[in-house]
Write a structure and sequence with these properties.
Layout lengths: L11 E6 L7 H20 L8 E6 L5 H14 L4 E4 L3 H14 L2 E4 L12 E3 L8 H11 L3 E7 L2 H16 L3 E8 L9 H10 L3 E5 L3 H12 L9 E3 L4 H7 L1 H4 L3 E4 L8 H14 L7 H20 L4 H8 L3 E4 L2 E5 L6 E2 L3 E5 L5 E7 L14 H6 E2 L1
Helix pairs in contact: 1-11, 2-3, 4-5, 7-8, 11-12
Amino acid sequence: MTRCRQDDSAPWRIGVLFSQSGVMAVIEETQLRATLLAIDEINQAGGVNGREIVPVIYDPESDAQTYALCAARLMIEDGITMIFGCYTSSSRKAVLPVVERLNGLLWYPTLYEGFEFSSNVIYTGAAPNQNSVALCSYLVHTYGTRFFFVGSDYVYPRASNRVMRELLRSRGCTVAGETYLDLRCKRSDFRPVMRQIKNTGADVIFSTVVGDSTVHLYQAFAEAGLDAGVTPIASLTTTEAEVRAMGFDVATGHITAAPYFQSVSGERNDCFVRCYKARYGEDEPTNMCAEAAYFQIHLFANALAEANSMETDLIKQSALGSDYDAPQGLVSVSASTSHTNLWPRIGRVDRRGQFQIMQQSLMPVWADPFLIGRGEVGALALRS
């Protein structure tokens, strides 16, 4: 597909696809907010090469097929090459054929199950060796060897659980049970799951539940009288946004592995949190998905400044191998995998709804989406 260069005075137009309605809005709205915050920061500093970045925003309504339709509209009707968005793997996989066919570039700011590479995607969320490996080691050492898997019924949970099952098997652990529920399930749907968990005597509940269902899972756990200090819910997806929605008392004691928490110390994160709250409200927390959505805009802007063109191949050439001082720490885009090198951390929710960081890496962990190196370097780099 041949594209014409924009004139030297026109704004740089980008596509933004995050759900503002539907079951995924609880987390995707925070990604949209962080994206707009980063765009405003860049524009207030003079834009990129003197030209503002202007987002063209559509609401995919938490529906994978709508994501694909919106992506096609952005590229064909709006003439846009850069798309920032997607949370679920289902939505990413729906958009992927569109950007590959039309040679666009999707910037994807969400952790995912790994085992994927596309030259038309920049992955800025965590791959399994940047969260699953460290989480598995921490849970086995701290809580025990019997796990119960509960997930939403779509691509990411099943694939992520395959990775976790293999990691557990290599450590002599047992998966005592496994179940999946619809993305639109209710709190009552988790009650029989809690009975199963009690009956199996699991030491840890590994959750790949996402969206509104996350709130229902944790509330059902509390209603069942289970104790997070004994049998915690451990997740790769539960963030400060879901913690706020479910209630701090419900979330206290549960575990998440992520490259970023609002509680990360450092001047760069202090500035990010302060600016986010100044724009959206003191009660609005940041989270790992918002942080990735934020820093990927800055990575893109730096690449755009060098390329001075929205041509996909030129932006990619500038973005791959580049780095940025993100709120989580210095991140860089691997030229070999198009994934981002990140900082694994383990957090436990405290009574203020924040994650107390229990362990964190000493350095960025190189993205290994196919687990070729099994991620053991990342595990060894963690410290209390």
